[in-house]
Amino acid sequence: EGEPRLVEAVLAMFVELEADPTAHGPFARCVLRVLSVVGLAPRLSACVGCGRAPEPRQAALFDPGRGGIVCRACGGGPLRLSGPARAWMMEAQGELEGTLPIDRADLSDVESAIDAFVKRHVRS
Description:
The chain is 45% helix and 7% strand. By secondary structure, the protein is mainly alpha-helical. Strands 2-1-3 form a 3-stranded antiparallel beta sheet. Strand 1 (60-63) and strand 2 form a beta hairpin. Helix 1 (4-19) runs antiparallel to helix 2 (26-37) and helix 3 crosses helix 4.
């Protein structure tokens, strides 16, 4: 069956690009929305090991292989997400309200995390 939320995610990306062709992040936001709709989104709100939930805008260590953020007590992760990058990803997945801006440095971290996550969990 068709999934209208997937179409909405792609259309939202095009609307963002039409409004500002130099916008940072429309494709990354779309990928995160699609992953969320299909139930494959990375876990960003709490540690995948122990469930400890840091503040939404707090930096965190990300482990693509484990599927999300991992606190230091549970071993951490190889990638660091700044607070703004993590909050932006959570917003893109629908876990936070609003539309947050993102700068190039944070977007680079987001794209690295998405790329590593997708390679680990989506590709066959």
